[in-house]
Specification:
mainly alpha; elongated
Length: 67
Amino acid sequence: MDATEVSISKLHLDDEIQDFLKEKGVKKVSEEMASDLGKHLMSHIKLAAKELADIARKEFKKGKKDK
């Protein structure tokens, strides 16, 4: 909550991420791969947050105009 960074050292231990990696044939996750995964996921989280904030701003402005 309010975190802006991913705990890289533990990220690859998440069950869903482990399942995904197993499906992709990854048996062991190196520190470098865990770091790359964390950066990739954070970039997607930040993009999604920006998109949601843009939608919220538009709705807020629309609501103010309707009053």
